[in-house]
Design goal:
Layout (H helix, E strand, L loop, with lengths): L4 E5 L6 H15 L6 E5 L5 H8 L5 E4 L16 H6 L4 E4 L2 H6 L4 H13 L3 E6 L3 H5 L3 H12 L11 E5 L13 H19 L7 E5 L4 H8 L6 E4 L6 H10 L5
The structure holds phosphoenolpyruvate.
């Protein structure tokens, strides 16, 4: 009952020509396929060019980050209203690289989420535990905390505008994906936590898995009942790999 959603996070890779080519190849090969939702997240400077390339296609566009204010003296930051103006429908907030490499707090992530929703964007909120936290048996405590803090002040009516991405920090860019069982356990936990807050609306909440997703491991992850898609980093930079992941998310006919 939940349409699977596959998103490609291009991180700080590509250049203008490569970004247009990659988006064009993904969109061209996907054609009018709507049984799976697909979005790409290029670096900020390439958003308008990729928006142009994707116009009239089924592939949606998002930004990898945004700030929590509409405008002002915030040198180097990008407002979610600017992101929307550049042609995006989506933005990622709380990616582990933002949390751990740039010190973003749960408080800031919550403010970004509010601003992005106010700007009319849909939001992928990323959550995930470190290796150390998992080894100490703290995975659910960390996920619960990140979810509760991330969603402070969010009403149930906004849930359709929100996607969660469970991304264990130890699996991102390491080649070490979570096992399907580990992913299912975390996703089921997040859904039940969302249910305790939003009721049955949580049954429609899309929860993506992210962390070293590849064509070889995606099928078993997507087979899990609470895994509703994938947030893909490295493998989204090659159209054939990304499309193989998208195809694995198509419903069985
Ligand atoms: C990501 O950037 O969100 C990610 C999951 O990266 P990778 O697929 O490379 O692990």
């Amino acid at each position: 009952m939940r349409t699977k959603f596959v998103a490609g996070n291009w991180k700080m890779y590509t250049n203008a020509a490569r970004a247009r080519d990659l988006a064009g190849e993904v969109a061209g090969k996907l054609g009018s396929e709507k049984r799976v939702a697909v979005a790409v997240f290029p670096p900020f400077p390439y958003l308008p060019a990729v928006a142009e390339t994707l116009r009239g296609t089924v592939v949606m566009l998002g930004a990898q980050n945004c700030y929590c204010e509409k405008e002002g003296a915030f040198t180097g930051e990008v407002s979610p209203w600017m992101v929307a103006d550049a042609g995006c429908q989506w933005v990622i907030v709380g990616h582990s690289e933002r949390r751990h490499k740039f010190g973003e707090s749960d408080f800031l992530i919550n403010r970004k989420l509010h601003a992005a929703l106010e700007a009319g964007l849909r939001v992928i909120l990323c959550l995930g535990e470190t290796r150390e936290e998992r080894d100490k048996g703290q995975t659910e405590r960390v996920l619960g905390w990140q979810l509760d803090c991330g969603l402070v002040g969010i009403e149930g009516g906004l849930l359709p505008h929100l996607v969660l991405a469970y991304e264990p920090v130890w699996a991102i860019g390491t080649g070490l994906n979570a096992t399907p069982e580990q992913a299912q356990q975390a996703h089921a936990f997040l859904r039940s936590r969302a249910r305790s807050r939003f009721g049955n609306a949580a049954d429609r909440l899309i929860i993506q898995y992210g962390g070293s997703v590849k064509p070889e491991n995606v099928a078993s992850l997507l087979h899990q009942p609470d895994v509703d898609g994938a947030l893909v980093g490295g493998a989204s930079l090659q159209a054939d790999l990304f499309l193989a992941i998208v195809r694995a998310a198509l419903p069985a006919t």
